[in-house]
Amino acid sequence: MSEEPPVTPSWLTPDPTAWASGGGGPMDNSTSLGTFPPDSLPPSQTPLLINPWDIVLCSSGTLIACENALVVLVIWQNPALRAPMFLLIGSLALADLLAGLGLVLHFTCAYLLQSESAQLLTVGLVVASFSASVFSLLAITIDRYLSLYYALTYNSERTAVFTYTMLVLLWGVSLCLGLLPVTGVNCLAEESTCSVVRPLTKNNIAVLSVSFLLLFGLMLQLYVQICKIVMRHAHQISLQHHFLAATPHYVTTRKGVSTLAIILGTFAACWMPFTVYSLIADYTYPPLYTYATLVPATYNSVINPVIYAFRNQEIQKALWLVCCGCIPASVAHRARTPSDV
Q1: Is the peptide bond before 47 cis (omega within 30 degrees of 0)?
Q2: Which of 1, 47, 84, 119 is the most exposed place for a label (fewest CB within 10 A)?
Q3: What was the pLDDT predicted at 199?
Q4: Is 140 exposed, middle or buried (CB count within 10 Å of its CB: 0-12, 13-18, 19+)?
Q5: pTM score of the predicted model
Q6: Cα gap 15→36, rounded to integer Å
């Protein structure tokens, strides 16, 4: 009676040793496992090779989960943090928290449980979570633009309704994207349809990549408009003081524009390599290239709390209260500047 093939403990390829190959094909298992070929050993004594890149992804997931869990906890426990801006930051933190948990659970299912159905569920969770993270970043950008363009009517009930609508839409679309590999849109039955990330199909990851490029283009356009609005307001205020270059408000406004550039640049640097690579490559490409672009993409979820949550004055106060039970004077009396945009 023939034995069933082992479950693949990898994101990328049925051969768990292929990550070590610099070429397009997998390595010879006999050279990877020493003098005893795996076929000559009983299943209970077969060595389990752990992909070091999967360890890196699992470690990143652990850091992401811990970091964003703190943000979610602070926003959840503080009734004062219920404005639309904080709801969107909470959505971003929750998405990144689930993404981190998904990376850890996928590692656990691949190497400990070795269950194909469980791996499909964790892949779906990761896809849905990272999709919700990117959509939340777009929603935050839209919220920042509206808060400047409609400054007089921003704090209205209409803004809250619009925010809740965005949250329902972004999580609904993300859930649908995450359910695709679970409901059968995967390449497990036909390996030739696999993308650079198994078990996602080439068509599936193409849709995700093109969607990301469209979202990035929209975010870029919105940030350009935000910069124009901020610079125009700063120019008007500076003219009233007759000292354009020397006005402190102008200096802080330039700092705010630089902050926006850093935010958008960080987002692009993390996600763009993997997005472009997944469009031009397929499962025949060396797994090393996929991991080298996928790992930086996960780092965006590590950076997000630093950019969007920990820099916020109200969240800083809440964090100090949770951790120390007090608020330092430097935090309590810090005035909001355009660099906080």
Answers
A1: no
A2: 1
A3: 86
A4: buried
A5: 0.81
A6: 17
